[in-house]
Amino acid sequence: MSVFPFVVVAWILTVGLYGIITSRHLVHQIVCLIVVQSSTYVLLLGVGYKTGAVAPYFYDIPGNTPAVDPVVQALALTDVVVEAAVTALLVAFAVQAHKRFGTLDPEELRQLQG
Amino acid sequence: MPVVHTVITPYTVRPFWLMEAFQVTILGLVAAGATAVVLTRNPTRQVIFLSIYGVLLAILFMAFQAPDVTLSELTVGAVILPLMLLLALAKVRRQEE
Amino acid sequence: MSGSTPMDALLPLTVVVPLLGAAGVSALNPLFGNRRRLLDAVAILTAATVAGMLIIIMVGTAGGQQVYWFAGFTPSHGVALGIDFAVDQLNAGLAVLAALLVTAAMVFSWRYFERVSTYYHALMLAFLAGMVGFCLTGDVFNLFVWFELMGVAAYALTAYRIGERGPIQGALNFAITNSVGAYLTLSGIALIYGRTGALNMAQIGQAIAGHRPDGLVVVAFALILLGLLTKASIVPFHFWLADAHAVAPTPVCVLFSGVMVELGLYGVARVYWSMFGVGLGHRTSITAALSAFGILTAIVGALFCFRQRHLKRLLAFSTINHAGLFLIGVALLTPLGLTGAAVYVVGHALVKAALFLCVGIVLHRLGSINETLLHGQGKQLRITGVVFALAALGLADLPPFALYLGAGWIGQSGDTRGMPWITVVIITTSILVGAAVSRVAGGVFYGIGDPPSEDPRMGEEASEETSETDEAKSRVPLSMIVPPAVLVALAVVVGLLPHLGPTVQAGAIRLQDQGAYNATVLAGTHTAHPRAIMAVEDAGVTVTDTVTGAGTAAGSLVLALVSLYWRRLPLLRRGFEPGTGLVGPIRRFQSGVVNDYVTWMVIGLACFGGALALAIR
Question: Are A and B close enough to touch, i.e. 3+ CB pairs under 8 angstroms?
């Protein structure tokens, strides 16, 4: 169990990068970028997890109960917000790209070269 | 050595091996979900897979004892982002007509 | 350390003020209505205020590190729970540079854009906040957050002319490559957090200092560096830069080339010296691995620069060349190497900003940035021509522009570490880049020689640029020519400052003393005299540096003249022009397709990780 989450993280990252590299559609490419970012959530929460620990809320449980690390959860939350912002911007770019180029294939965007 | 209380909260599953088995299963599902999202080349279908992937991630975060990340992933990853992408695809389709 | 001194009140304000400014101009947009000048004035004033505050802070750091803990969460028993700003001479200086360039760019924009959207001002101020926060933060997760804020503002600014094809493509390439880099950096941060349980850089450094570096630490180091190297446009992570520069509005290019790229390198230095330096060890191997990337970047940048006919791309590749040279300076890990890099960065920023602003004037007046079309067209732009030519010579390391000092010190430090070829790389690539820019100065502004051969594809791309500004203007407004002139003058002033070397080196030594950093941040104990990790060399102005700098500038001029008069030279084959052999490779590598760029990033990550793994066994 201790290594498995990290294997999954590496897999998600690899698959996402593979998707970005082979993508022929900008929206597909953006979704692959979301997948790449999702690997960081799993990594963050995997890093903070302890077997048998509970969620880090100490309202009605004794103070010395083992809890998972709350810091990584705060980081993951920030990460989700960052993701939403970046994706929104990229989607706006993609819509404009289609309007100007008439295609969403990144290989067909041929305005800039060399 | 402080006494460690065993506490049952809505998020704990006992015994621990059951929880671990659940985590391993859901991790495997997440890995498969990511693969499915990437390999689906039809954008509309892919967005639906992305939404399912968001739900899987949310369940995973629940299993990792992170309820508030679960909530934000459910809203952002499973609903808002797919909606945004669907709207973009709809707009692109309108442009094509 | 507690929030009692006026300095402590000032530190958070350096990011709060621009962020409030950005939020203010967006929220009060209806209020501004047609009063565009009011908007400009608010933005300029905000940026200038930030610059002023940062200058006060920079002067205050001469006595040592300043640490500010947000909301007063000071560390207890060496455990940092809060988030801090840790300011020393070098990062305060870099933040000052960022604020000054934003001010200059906003002044230039006063007349440059005929009409401008409100969000331009908001984005510029948010960009400024991101850069300042990135410089000053002492928390590695916040480093990532500021990196992303900076990034999002920069992507949006690149696509400012959203109605055209080039900007969309450039912004997409920029955003996707940099996002991939940022996520890999975040993965590295997560790994190092898993190992140390800390996010404060000083505490992480302390936690990994005691152990032999294991695979996890090395992987985390490589991943964190990857995003920073992408921002720093180090080959093979550099492809986005030329595309983004080619299409971003000129005042924005000033910031990209002048500070944003250099901030990536500052990040490398900060992450290394505050977190990994002591823990990783193996300094010789790390120098070898990083400087190899630096040398490759310098050479690739210089060759591609010389070939370009598109003025903004030409300057962009010159930036890539310089980023490589800066990385070499950082990678030497010596106080003098870092000193050289710091001075080089300042000089380069001032000169390059002036060059970009002059190109902006050319575009504004003549409606093109195609070197071939512009040949001899710039004769009536007398002052612009003089400023551009001076800046070109400065870029070619002519004393007394500050750049020759940086180049000289990096070379000298390379000699000391047994790498004399670094001087050779600096001189040859600087001659190539200087020649390319001097060729533009001579050809466009003075009509010397023949126009360089036309490149059909480039003409198409450059013709789209005209809409960045309005129809050709009859004269150059004062608000457009004064900023570049002042920047060039500043580059000379910096080069002539007395005690420049020793002062900057004191800052470099402080940045490199991890022990002193830890003590100040975690325990609040101040170290008056930080210890140099590597031997301190003399940072004086030597005759060798001056002669080398002058020689490089002279070499650039000769090469520029040769390429301008190439077709009239006897003995040479017709139809062959210097650099034309590079067209194929440039087209193949700089394909404009983001898929290729990400492929190169993955290859680069594998090479970089492999090199580090070999280095730190």
Answer: yes
Is the Cβ–Cβ distance between B5 and A62 less than 8 Å?
yes
Cβ neighbours of residue C435 closer than 8 Å, sequence gap 6 or more: C306, C396, C555, C556, C557, C558, C559, C560, C563
Cβ–Cβ < 8 Å for C127, C106: no
Residue B3 counted as domain residue:
no
A12 touches C: beta carbon within 8 Å: no
Query: C102: which 2 tokens?
Result: 């934003």
What is the tens place of the pLDDT at every residue in C272-319?
999 998 888 888 889 999 999 999 999 999 998 988 888 999 999 999
Q: Which chain B residue is nearest to residue A8, measuring alpha carbons?
A: B31
What number of CA atoms fall less than 13 Å from residue B58's CA on the CB side?
17
Buried b (16+ CB within 10 A) or exposed e, B46-68: bbebbbebbebbbbbbbbbbbbb
Percent over 90 (pLDDT), chain B: 58
> For chain B, percent helix, then strand, then coil, each to nearest 5?
75, 0, 25
- Average pLDDT of chain A to the nearest whole number: 86
Q: Which residues of B touch A64 (CB under 8 A)?
A: 2-5
What are C68's two structure tokens?
Answer: 């500010």
In whole angstroms, give the CA distance from residue B26 to residue B12: 16
Q: Please check the confidence at residue C2 and state whether its pLDDT lies above 70.
A: no
Q: How many domains does chain B have?
A: 1
- Residues C523-540 have a mean pLDDT of 82
CA dist., res. C397 & res. C406, Å (int): 9
Question: What share of chain C has pLDDT > 90, as a percent?
Answer: 57
Higher pLDDT, C455 or C591: C591
What is the token pair recorded at C298?
């310098």
CA atoms of C392 and C69, how far apart (whole Å) = 43
Q: Whole-prediction pTM value?
A: 0.92
The C-alpha atoms of residue C583 and residue A39 are separated, in whole angstroms, by 39
Burial class (CB in 10 A: 0-12, 13-18, 19+), C63: exposed
Contacts of C179 (CB under 8 A, 6+ apart): A33, A37, A86, A90, C151
The separation between CA C502 and the C-alpha centre of its own chain, rounded to angstroms, equals 23
Q: How far apart are CA C546 and CA C528, in angstroms?
A: 33
For chain C, the average pLDDT equals: 88
- Structural tokens at position C216: 């996890």
Contact C269, C330 (CB under 8 A): yes
Specify if B71 maps to a domain: yes
The token duo for A59 is 């309202």
Higher per-residue confidence, B14 vs C524: C524
Per-residue pLDDT, C5 = 65
| List of domains in chain A | 4-108 (1.10.287.3510)
Mutate to test the interface with A, among B24, B64, B97 (most CBs of A within 10 A): B64
Q: How far is the CA of C373 from the CAs of B65, C367, C383, C463, C521, in angstroms?
A: 64, 10, 20, 10, 56
* Residue B89 exposed, middle or buried by CB count within 10 Å (0-12, 13-18, 19+): buried
Task: Please tell me if residue A66 touches chain B, with a CB cutoff of 8 Å.
Answer: yes
Per the domain annotation, does B11 fall within a domain? no
Contacts of A52 in chain B (CB under 8 A): 16, 19
Cis peptide bond N-terminal to C400, omega within 30: yes
Which domain covers residue B44, as residue numbers? 16-96
Contact between A76 and C190 under an 8 Å Cβ cutoff? The reply is no
> Inter-chain contact C593–A106, Cβ cutoff 8 Å?
yes
User: Do the Cβ atoms of B73 and A41 come within 8 Å?
Assistant: yes
Q: pLDDT at residue C260 above 90?
A: yes
Cα separation, C172 vs C447, whole angstroms: 37
Report the DSSP beta bridge partners of residue C69: C84
Higher pLDDT, A73 or C582: A73
